[in-house]
Amino acid sequence: MVRSGQRVPLLGARAAAAMAGFVEPGQEAGAVLVQVQDDLHKFKVKNTNLKGNVKAVDISNLKTGIERTELGLRKHAENYLHDINRQALTISSTDNKEVHSKEPPKWGLHFGASQKQLVLPRVPVEPVTVQAYSKSALRVSQSSQQQLEMDMKIMLDPQNISNTAVLKQQNYETRLPLITKKKSAPMCSQKIGKGHTVSNLWGLPASHHMGSPLPLLEEDRTKGILSLTELRLIPPAAKITLQTPPVVSKAAPFHEFHKQHKKSAVEISSRVDLENTDTITFPNSKEAIYGKYSSSKGNIAPLPSSSSTVSARKSKPAWTYPAQQLESDLQIPSQTQPPQMSPCQSLQDLCFDCDIAVYHGTIDQKAPGFLAFKQHYCLSWKSIVFFLEHTEKLLKDYAVPLATINCKKLAEVASDFELNENPTKSDILTVIKNQSTVEKILNRPGQRYKGQGGTEMAATKIQTTWRCYQARKACVRFRQQQWASGVIAISWLLHNHMARVKKTLKESRQRHLENFYIRAKHLAANWNRIRTSRRTIIHIPSLGYSQCIREHIPGLALQQNMQMGRLCDILDANVDVIYICPLHLSEELLQYYNKLLGLQAAVRSGKPEDMGDLQDRFKILTPEAINSFPKHHMCLATQLKYSPKTIKRIKILIQSKDAYIIGGVPHKDDLAVADMLNVPILGSVPEVAHLYSTKSGSKRIFTSACVPTPPGESDIYNNEQMISALSQLILDNMEVRRWLFKVNDEFGGNGTAYCDIILHLKCYHWVQKERQRYSPEIWSKKWAHEPALVKISQELPGLLAQHVQPVNEKRFPTWEKFLQTFLSQGGVIEAFPLSENVTNLTVDMLIEPTGKIKIVSSGDQLHADGPLRSSGTTIPQCSVDPAVLNSLCLKIGETCKSKGVLGYFSVDFVTFIHPQTMEQQVWATDLDLCYSDQLALTQLMLYMTDGNLDCRSSRFEVSLGSNKMKSQRIQHEERKTPSPVSNRCAVASSQLRHSSLSVIYYNVLLQMCKARGVGFDLQEKQGTVFILYEDQQRYRLGMITIGEDLQGVLMTFARNLFIIHQEISAPNMQGETNFKMAIQDIEAILGITAENKLKLEEERPLKADALKE
User: Sheet of 535-543: strands edge to edge?
Assistant: First the structure.
């Protein structure tokens, strides 16, 4: 058993030696203090164990001595550490002899200290050169050792008088070992590893922390820094440095890939003179640990390993000087002096710029460079390891033979990732130095199956692809079925919805029709009262054709506004007019019609000053829906139906008044508007009107009325029927040269085509010979026609394709297009009159609600757009005997009445002199169950003349007033006798067009016409009146010329056209117009009129002679 008393002298001796500043040779002051503290601790433990066994020793006194010794040691240790940390050190000049003195010191510190050496604070300093001495160990000179020993004694016992005297010497300075420069050795191809060597962050190393005043046991060290701080074994403000035991001071060689090991070009000699020291330079450039140093950096020896660096730093004296002093005094032995930095910073930069090689997806985790990198980034190592694991997996999976990872980028990128977030391929590629090469390998097709688990992955891929194909096929089939079911469901829903809408619309239209019949009966019952009492007429000039026809009508709105003469119904003092206009009229046009209609009183008196204001008698309303449906080709009735504001205003205007509607071409929406306004319609049911307004329907009416019609065939709907019917018509009417083809639903000659078949039929002469072979009785039999029918039928298709000429070439440029429309809508084939001089005439009729049939207008047609299109009329007609014409019209009227036709309608006739019989022929050719343009012009003509048109006698008469002032007696006598009556004729047209009219305003046009003598004489009730339709495009207008006789009126009308054309056209810009054709047609009519006058003059003497005889 060891006695405690034997231990006390040893403790006292060591403590006294430490406090006095003397230590045994080869030991450091810090090591001595540590040893003393360990001995005290062990002695305390043993003392505690001996309390029950040793009786001779006074335990309390011994304990007191130990505590005093501990307090003293603690105090001196703290003073020692405080002085080392606070003392400002200086470096003496290089010429001081004490620095190079070879005299051995009285006391010294061994630089190869043990693990329990005193560790100074880590101060960042600039890269320095560490002197290398002989025997591969760093030693200081004898003079430097003496200086260090003296500094140690002074620091351990600064109150000693002898130590104070030494400090007061003038030449006393604290010196560092002399740093000399050695010639740089050639660059070594070795790679240097660097980094921290901390194995466990939470466990302290074996050496003490510089701020710890007491020794630490092994069990205290393993508890961690936080535990020691809480136990106040480590001061809170202490700077903690974690270090491991030193390693051999030798550079760790790392060889290049595919190269053999080469020895370093610079070897540290085993014996070096103290005077001539070799230097090891820390590189300043940021070079990678696994790469070669750039040749531009100079020939610098390889950097020692991290353990070598720590060992070299520990081989210095146990105390160091402040970093500020070192930065100002040390010089970098290099030709190009880079920015100065401390060794710690240089090492840190090297750690940031190092590279890690990955062979076949594996990182050598025992490589010094990797360990140094791991040591440096120990605090964030978990995220780096996480990132590296994914990197290794990716490189293994794709069998990448070599990849170089940039540690600096790796640390930056890894710090941004969380552990639950896996890095992507692009993220991994950003940290790879040879990124382009690796990326090519990764993108190589099939590369994934060459790496780790490639076979399994290939099998998985094959299975996945097959399953994906099966699933895709099933999904596509399912989606097709789903789509089909969706289409079926939607179609069914739409069908049901459409059926409900159709049912609702059908019920609504049926209700409108029933109400129409109810109101029509009421109108018929009260017509005699209504037509003689105060009433309001609502004019809706709508063209209610089918949608396909309205789409092909150019300027539909303008075409519907060509019946402005309807306003002239206010000629009857009991009538107010509401005119629904399909266009917005400007104030200029409204003012024009206000003045025109205000001439009624002036016309009756013959004095212009009697002109009045009749704005309260007529209203021109424009539906607001025309702006909402500008391109839908709606008829005016439909637009009015969707114009609630206009409907409301009409209701206000007709409130508590008798009113009825006069429409245009009937449409189902006319019934809807009538139902909304609760007024009757003076017109036919739309279905009846459309049925009998077609070319085939009119043929049925004429056939039922037993009126003469051209030879022809109706209701043709296929090509075979057309060829067969036309062949038979040709055989039955060999004298007919031209045949007409008319589409059922077209109007105004737009759906008409003609062909002079006889001129182009090659078998015509053969057919004539065949006809002459048979007698008339035999030729009338069908079997005799069969050979001729076959020949004609074979020749007709080609003949028609080459020689048929449509009237409207813009709509039907070829026979094929016309034939397609002809067969789709149906049509008729009829013969053109045999004579070259043909006159077409139109008769307007009215079937009143009571059933009375009246002829309200008649006129001969003008053809400014070709022989088959009407452009105007001469009123009254004078080409057919009125009695014959009235008879035909009454027959047609009775038939229409029997078919349910009501209101206004017009019948077209054609008359000519038959070349064989020389008798006048009259054929009924067309029937339009609507209000015509001719009737509107007739209304304006009667309004401007206050005359009377007797269609039964075809006379138009006006009463003339006296021009001179007469006495009251004479005027009274004239009242007893009727005013003198004069006959008048009129030429009217609503289809005049000239493109140059758009460049001139209407007021300018009227002024020019007035200057050229074109106007209306109120007293004579003759002259010219213009009808203006719109003021936007202004390329169309209407004109009525009234005169005493037909020849004079025609000449005046032609002269007016010539004047207007001359005023608005330049010689080189004639414009597009139909004025010229109208003038030519009028000239032809005038020629016929002159011939007829000559014939009449020749016939009169013959008739007189016959009467005398």
Answer: 618-621, 575-580, 535-543, 658-665
Phi, psi of 13 (to 5 degrees): -65, -45
Q: Using CA atoms, how far apart are residues 622 and 602, in angstroms rounded to an integer?
A: 29
Whole-angstrom Cα distance, residue 662 to residue 300? 114
Q: Is the pLDDT of residue 1052 over 90?
A: yes
Cβ contacts of 726-732, under 8 Å, gap ≥ 24: 726/757, 726/796, 726/829, 727/789, 727/792, 727/793, 727/796, 728/785, 728/789, 729/829, 729/831, 730/757, 730/758, 730/761, 730/767, 730/792, 731/767, 731/785, 731/788, 731/789, 731/792
pLDDT digits (tens, 9 = 90+) for 755-780: 999 999 998 899 888 888 888 888 88
Q: What is the pTM of this model?
A: 0.60
For 907-965, give the DSSP string: EEEEEEE-TTT--EEEEEEEEE-S--HHHHHHHHHHHHHT-EEETTTTEEEEE---SS-
Q: 927 with 699: CB under 8 angstroms? A: no
Least confident of 199-203, 1012-1016, 1060-1064: 199-203
Which backbone phi and psi does 1036 adopt, to 5 degrees?
-130, 150
As beta bridge partners, residue 1038 has: 1027
**φ and ψ of 442, to 5 deg:** -65, -35
pLDDT digits over 469-485, tens only?
999 999 999 999 999 99
**Structural tokens at position 482:** 């789903």
Number of residues that make up the chain:
1109
Sheet order of strands, 1016-1017 included? 920-928, 903-913, 839-847, 853-862, 872-875, 985-993, 1036-1043, 1022-1028, 1016-1017
Q: How many Å is the Cα radius of gyration of the chain?
A: 63
State the Cα–Cα distance between residues 817 and 824, nearest whole angstrom. 11
The two structure tokens encoding residue 823: 């067969």
List own/partner pairs for 713-720 with CB under 8 A and 24 or more apart. 713/828, 713/829, 713/830, 714/827, 714/828, 715/826, 715/828, 716/822, 716/823, 716/826, 716/827, 716/828, 716/829, 717/823, 717/826, 718/823, 719/819, 719/823
- To which residue do tokens 């069990």 refer? 219
H/E segment holding residue 741: strand 738-743
Give the span between the Cα atoms of 809 and 737, in whole angstroms.
Answer: 22
Strand order in the sheet with 752-756: 712-716, 827-831, 738-743, 752-756, 805-806
From 986, 993, 1012, select the one nearest 1078 (Cα to Cα): 993
pLDDT in tens, 846-897: 999 999 999 999 999 998 888 888 999 999 999 999 999 999 999 999 999 9
Q: How many angstroms separate the CA atoms of 1085 and 1050, rounded?
A: 8
The kind and range of the H/E element at 993 are strand 985-993
Residues in contact with 428: Cβ distance below 8 Å, sequence separation at least 6, in sequence order: 387, 390, 391, 394
Are 656 and 534 in contact, with CB atoms under 8 Å apart? no
The dihedrals phi and psi of 446, each to the nearest 5 degrees, come to 80, 5
Q: Which residues contact 128 (CB under 8 A, 6 or more apart)?
A: 179, 282, 326, 330, 343
- Give 3-state DSSP helix, strand, coil % of the chain, rounded to 5: 45, 15, 40
Q: Closest Cα to residue 1008, out of 1048, 1061, 940?
A: 1061
Mean pLDDT score, 148-170 = 67
Contacts of 623 (CB under 8 A, 6+ apart): 580, 582, 636, 639, 640, 642, 643, 646
Nearest-angstrom CA–CA distance, 611 and 601: 6
Residue 1099, SS3 per DSSP: helix
| Alpha carbon distance 117, 208 (integer Å) | 8
Distance of alpha carbon 554 from alpha carbon 993, whole angstroms: 13
Structure tokens at 776: 């008339």
Q: How many CB atoms lie within 10 A of CB 102?
A: 9
